[in-house]
Write a structure and sequence with these properties.
The protein has helices at about 10-20, 25-40, 40-55, 60-70. Helix 1 runs antiparallel to helix 2 (about 25-40), helix 2 (about 25-40) packs antiparallel against helix 3 and helix 3 packs antiparallel against helix 4. By secondary structure, it is mainly α.
């Protein structure tokens, strides 16, 4: 995976693992922190979209994808 060496990737993996374990709020908190720190990186927004897709929060999916496209 080409993103594996990016500085944010370990935190993305942690957020997705928490989500998979049912700890959605904790996973979302990590992603929110990543958006603050790396919000100008479109890849973070796509990970956020994927996270919200899993939660079936489609307005947030759309917002995340739109933001990624604008970067």
């Amino acid at each position: 995976h080409k993103d594996c060496c990016q500085p944010y990737y370990p935190q993305v993996e942690k957020a997705l693992t928490l989500f998979a374990k049912g700890q959605k709020a904790a996973g979302k908190q990590i992603l929110d922190q990543l958006i603050v720190k790396f919000g100008t990186n479109y890849q973070i927004w796509l990970y956020r979209a994927d996270f919200f897709f899993g939660m079936e929060d489609f307005p947030e999916v759309e917002k995340s994808i739109q933001t990624a496209l604008e970067l």
